[in-house]
Amino acid sequence: MQVPQLFPVHSAPHGTKVAVVGAGAVGSTIAYACQIHGVAHTVALYDTDAAKVRAQVLDLQHGSMFTPTTAIIGSDDVGVCADADVVVITAGAKQRPGQSRMALAEANVAMCQALVPRLLEVAPEAILVPVTNPVDVVTQAVLAVSGLPAHRVVGSGTVLDSSRLRSLISERAGVGVPSVRAYIAGEHGDSAVPLWSGAFVGSVPVSDWKVDGTPTFTQAVRDDIARTVTNAAYEVIAGKGATTYAVGLAAAYILDAVLGDQRLILPVSSLVQDFHGIGGVCMSLPRLVDRSGAGVPEPVTPSPEELARLRSSAAQIRKVCRDLRL
């Protein structure tokens, strides 16, 4: 007698494979999010810690009765990533309480420079999705060492930051999160820029939204929301040691957009060629994400203040890249 599936089946594209590099808190949570959402037919975990990766794989496999059909495999051999459609990079030094993401740059860039050629040997057609922080600098390093076209290196960027922003706007507006459209752009870090000029609740600009005739999103409220978004990771890390659930869901969302060819507009980090004079740097801007990876930035027009802050954010990323000779 066949046991009925207890979870609605999501039809992952046939034969698709996601490889996740790093079986720690973030990597395993991304694998879990991919499993429960049926993002790919196969999810592979790669980590140099053989005992850990085996334990994570077993733990995920033991829940397979409750999820869409997904093959979960793992190894301390990079060959487990062979022929992956997408490779997610989460390995590297983790952010400590009070530490900025940029402080991780040197060690994590060096790690990626050693790792990426090995990944491309076994998965030469893969789209690479760096999640390791500082993600914009790491994305630039992966792009440089891989030699891939820019659209095939898609950093997780500010997708999570934008989710935090939308959540806070929805709370103030009293609407569901899906009714909010708003983006964080620039660095995934302290110089991130909320694009308030293009933020909407339903079809209403955020700046025009009122409750009982009173404007909801005053400048003071917007500044408070922006500070909360910027400090969110620090608060989570201080309380539990790492951000895991939200980044896992954000990464799975990006992967689903790629493998499902969904053509979603997402603020991922990829090479900026020329955006209002900003160029030659990887940073987050709203882009079309589909099966080919990241498209060019959408032709949005930030306010003069937002553009000045985006240029400053780009300069900070570029300086770290220059210091690391990227």
From TrEMBL:
Pathway: Fermentation; pyruvate fermentation to lactate; (S)-lactate from pyruvate: step 1/1. It catalyses: (S)-lactate + NAD(+) = pyruvate + NADH + H(+). It comes from the Bacteria. The keyword Oxidoreductase applies. GO terms for biological process: glycolytic process; lactate metabolic process. GO terms for cellular component: cytoplasm. Residues 16-155 form the Lactate/malate dehydrogenase N-terminal domain. This is L-lactate dehydrogenase. The active site is at residue 188. PROSITE patterns: L_LDH. Residues 158-320 form the Lactate/malate dehydrogenase C-terminal domain. InterPro entries: L-lactate/malate_DH, L-lactate_DH, L-lactate_DH_AS, Lactate/malate_DH_C, Lactate/malate_DH_N, Lactate_DH/Glyco_Ohase_4_C, NAD(P)-bd_dom_sf. NAD(+) binds at residues 22-27, 47, 108, 131-133. Belongs to the LDH/MDH superfamily. LDH family. GO terms for molecular function: L-lactate dehydrogenase (NAD+) activity. It is an enzyme of class 1 (oxidoreductase). The keyword Lipid metabolism does not apply. It comes from Amycolatopsis dendrobii. Keywords: NAD, Oxidoreductase. Its EC number is 1.1.1.27.
